[in-house]
Amino acid sequence: MHGIKLTFFESIKSGFENVVNFNGRASRSENNYWLLFLFIVQFCAMIIDPPVSEIIKNNTNTLSIGELDSTVNNTIYSPLNSRLFSFVYFLLVIPSTSLVIRRFHDIGKSGWYILLPFTIIGVLPYYYWTCIMPGEIKENIYGVNPLAHRE
Question: pTM of the entire structure?
Answer without folding.
Answer: 0.77
